[in-house]
């Protein structure tokens, strides 16, 4: 069975985002062998007026298919109280499949790489923390090069020690 190298984006701006991220990572541990966790970033929201977001990314390997990964992430979001009310609205937890090595998916349910990844600094910066060497599989452009061309105002690195083995990350 194939093992997938995957980067998952985490975002939240309601409740306690750090606790939601730690809980999400703990929930991923049974099926994702975590190799890296990004720093934590504070970002201005896109969409309706709402609180700033916290964003992060996790890289790991799994034997689950891309659609199985999506299903597992949606279950974790629901357990964290995620309610989808409006597009780009506030949320307790948002988990996105950002990238999977050597994989392109384009279905109504899932697009990999994430369809707007190239234009979203709040997703690219955490991704580059955990996978600085990777490139967009469709264009071949390194994500570091794409990030260098973005306006990154409104994105601030706020914490590099937010997740540790003491918080349940014993497979890092």
Provide key terms for this protein:
two-stranded antiparallel ribbon; six-stranded antiparallel sheet; 8 strands; 172 residues; disordered C terminus; alpha+beta; single chain
In words, what does this structure look like?
The protein is of the alpha+beta class and 172 residues long. 24% of the residues lie in helices and 26% in strands. The protein is globular, with a radius of gyration of 15 Å. It starts with a strand and ends in a 13-residue tail after the last strand.
What's the helix-strand series? Answer: EHEEEHEEEHHE
Give the tally of β-strands.
8
The biggest beta sheet is recorded as: 6 strands, antiparallel
Fraction of residues in helix:
10-25%
General shape: globular
Tally of separate helices: 4
Assembly annotation: single chain
Overall pLDDT: 89
Computed CA radius of gyration, to the nearest angstrom? 15 Å
- Head-to-tail CA distance between termini: 23 Å
Unreliable spans are: 167-172
Q: What fraction of the residues are assigned to beta strands by DSSP?
A: 25-35%
Going by helix content, strand content and strand pairing, the class is alpha+beta
Walk me through the topology.
Blueprint: E1 4-12, H1 17-28, E2 33-37, E3 40-43, E4 53-62, H2 66-79, E5 94-100, E6 105-106, E7 111-112, H3 121-130, H4 143-148, E8 155-159
Antiparallel strand pairs: 1-4, 1-5, 2-4, 3-4, 3-8, 6-7
């Amino acid at each position: 069975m194939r093992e997938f190298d995957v980067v998952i984006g985490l975002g939240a701006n309601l409740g306690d985002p750090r606790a939601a991220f730690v809980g999400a990572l703990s929930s991923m541990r049974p099926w994702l062998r975590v190799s890296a966790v990004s720093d934590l970033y504070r970002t201005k929201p896109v969409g309706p007026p709402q609180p700033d977001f916290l964003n992060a990314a996790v890289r790991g390997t799994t034997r689950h298919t891309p659609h199985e990964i999506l299903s597992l992430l949606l279950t974790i979001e629901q357990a964290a109280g995620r309610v989808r009310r409006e597009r780009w609205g506030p949320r307790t937890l948002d988990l996105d499949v950002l990238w999977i090595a050597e994989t392109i998916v384009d279905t109504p349910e899932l697009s990999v790489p994430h369809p707007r990844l190239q234009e979203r600094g709040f997703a690219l910066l955490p991704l580059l923390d955990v996978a600085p060497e990777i490139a967009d599989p469709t264009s071949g452009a390194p994500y570091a090069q794409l990030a260098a061309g973005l306006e990154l105002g409104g994105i601030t690195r706020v914490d590099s020690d937010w997740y540790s083995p003491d918080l349940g990350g014993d497979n890092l």
